[in-house]
Amino acid sequence: MDDDLPTDFEVIVVGTGMVESIVAAACSRIGKNVLHLDSSDHYGGLWASYNFDGLQKFIKEVNADPKRQWPVYNLSEKWYIEKESSEPEQNEDKKEGDENKTDDSKAETQKKIWSQANFTAEYRKFNIDMTPKLLFSRGPLVELLISSNIARYAEFRCVTRVLTWLNDRLAPVPCSRADVFATEAVSIVEKRMLMKMLTSIVGYNEEEMNNEFKDWNDKTFKEYLTHKGLTPNLIHYVLYAIAGGTDKMPCLEGVKECKKFLMSLGRYGNTPFLWPMYGSGELPQCFCRLCAVFGGVYCLNRPIDKVEIKTLDEGKRVVAIQSKSKTLNCNNLVVGIDECPKEMLPTEPVETSDISKAVFITNGTIMPSEKEPLTLLRFPPLTEEGHAVTVLEVGPATGSCPKGLFVVYFITKMVKDAESDLQQYAARIFDFSGDQTAESDKPKCLYSLYYNVKDTSVPVQSVASEVHVCAGPDVGLDFDRAVEQAEQVFKKICPGEEFLPRAPDPEEIVFEDDVTHGPEFARHDDEEGDAQ
Amino acid sequence: MATNRSGAAQRPNGAPQTKVCQFKLVLLGESAVGKSSLVLRFVKGQFHEYQESTIGAAFLTQTVCLDDTTVKFEIWDTAGQERYHSLAPMYYRGAQAAIVVYDITNQDTFGRAKNWVKELQRQASPSIVIALAGNKSDLAAKRMVEFEEAQAYADENGLLFMETSAKTAMNVNDIFLAIANKLPKSESGGGGAGGARRLADADAPKASSCCK
């Protein structure tokens, strides 16, 4: 079908992950002729969201071909519910899904008993992220989305609360000034101490180290907080929940993380965070759309076989890409690390630690609230050698799952493997019994998926200066590194050009044809007239 | 997400305040069936025989005034992503209306249109209003898709249907008007994303940090 694909471009981008997609948009926006390919039939690569069927296919594909070097491994999937509904016919066909409002024979809001068949029937209502991430309300991605006008392609929801694990239970973290003053968990004296310390953190400035923090370079954040006289509970909130750190977190790193959190407060909601509707996997697509709007050509399902650098007669170099028995030429190739042919990568591997992840689908939120919550939960490490664990719980209002369910993501740095690293955390907040009728103060886990991902977020230099390798997803909470990397790649390809200048609004677009064309010379006359 | 703005609609004739509802409308259909031409005819009243995709203009707005409501269409064009079957799903996310376009002189494009309808029925919001447009009706002499066939298909699937011509402007305004009439103008709108927000400069109170 795609044999009429043009063959010569200024920039070819391979892979539709976050970094590649931002670069594609940026190049196209300033007038570069861009071709954007992906070897699979969907957008996003490792940053994709899948519906339930897509997720099952992905798991099957990876497990079927372990020899192919997948960046994803140790996938282990488990159901905690029956295949078919064992209940007598409830007339719950596919279309239903929503609460049984008509069913008044039952007590008020009886929970639906889910079976695997229900998941299959409603598979399209799921959007499950391989790389779930939040946006800081004043972080670089939000600023970029607004300044480039790409923000109009996406919708967001505010994260409604930040939780932590304190004294063996879930505890809400006071985020805003109002929260701090409203909370009963913190005494008046503590409140004053906390506000004073937060104020000095907001005043922190890397360039001028003549302040508060100049003697804390080689100490931990915990030492600083202790020195400031914070009580253990407050240290817990600031260190684990706000800074997302551990006991070993260096002081200045903690200060930076806290400042980022504080600076993003008060823009959109009660917490500093935003979550994209339909999942993180939407964001690369928004950048791809901008690329297409400015003339970028899109072709999925188009793997590349080989990349060569050719020197032409005049000494000019081009990148020649073999794809489906066709040669595609460009001046610059931008390629996602998971799509990059080995011959373009340096031989010595980069030392990194991998990432442990898990997805749980549950029948309720981890902490009931009046309105549907959207939660960031940060666990401090529960073991000596473990790392902090980030948990995101998203519900039906985000377009992530059918009504009555929640999707919960767990992310941490790998120590052993995903299941051993994360199971003990999950066990603290979920009920794994599979018995949906039994009373419990925890939500029931209906489905779980553990997996590890290679951390490919460290920038890699390719062997050729015309080939730019884009990093994969990192373990971090936000997209900041992806944005930073994309800008660096763009600057290499288009030195001196503006990175994603604002795209015009519909009202501002002047159609060339709004002016009736006269003969060629007449138009020149007009232009000269204007210039005077 | 239908956004109801409480402010008065700006109408030159100074008409009394009306409710303004904003809707996302997407165009779907094979390459070269005239999707962009339909939009340009509707929004700008123009037609060009050799329409090239207008760079940067894949996102246009136009309002339609009904009795008590002003319907503002936010019209999304495919930006050519359909050409190699690579249209991003985010394109039709949250769309409240769609026009699926085929070319009456090309039977294949009608088949593709049916596939798009199927895709929308499965993937888009259940309350989406879908219109089927048999475009290029000015080329009736080369007709390959019978009006009755398309009408029967539209009836079966609950679609609005018209044959249109971006060239002569036939039925172009009418099809948008028919969609505007059919869209639910309730407070919460038809989309499932009530409460979701777009990001904009306007709602950025600078450095109002609560901890200062």
Automatic annotation (TrEMBL), chain A:
Chief location of this protein within or outside the cell: cytoplasm
Sequence similarity: Belongs to the Rab GDI family.
Region (Disordered): 83-109, 513-532
Pfam families linked to this entry: GDI
Cytoplasm recorded as keyword: yes
Name the record gives this protein: Rab proteins geranylgeranyltransferase component A
Compositional bias segments (type: Basic and acidic residues): 514-526
Cross-referenced InterPro entries: FAD/NAD-bd_sf, GDP_dissociation_inhibitor, Rab_escort
Species of origin: Loxostege sticticalis (Beet webworm moth)
Record keywords, A-Z: Cytoplasm, GTPase activation
Recorded superkingdom: Eukaryota
Keyword Acetylation among record annotations: no
Compartment(s): Cytoplasm
Transmembrane region(s): none
Gene3D superfamilies (alphabetical): FAD/NAD(P)-binding domain, Guanine Nucleotide Dissociation Inhibitor, domain 1, Guanine Nucleotide Dissociation Inhibitor, domain 2
Automatic annotation (TrEMBL), chain B:
Keywords per UniProt: Endosome, GTP-binding, Hydrolase, Lipoprotein, Nucleotide-binding, Prenylation, Protein transport, Transport
Domain of life, per lineage: Eukaryota
Cell location: Early endosome
Reactions catalysed: GTP + H2O = GDP + phosphate + H(+)
Molecular function as annotated in GO: G protein activity; GTP binding
Listed InterPro entries: P-loop_NTPase, Small_GTP-bd, Small_GTPase
GO annotation, cellular component aspect: early endosome
UniProt main location, coarse: other
Keyword hit for Protease: no
CDD domains: Rab5_related (cd01860)
Membership in a protein family: Belongs to the small GTPase superfamily. Rab family.
Name used for this protein in its record: small monomeric GTPase
Organism per entry: Loxostege sticticalis
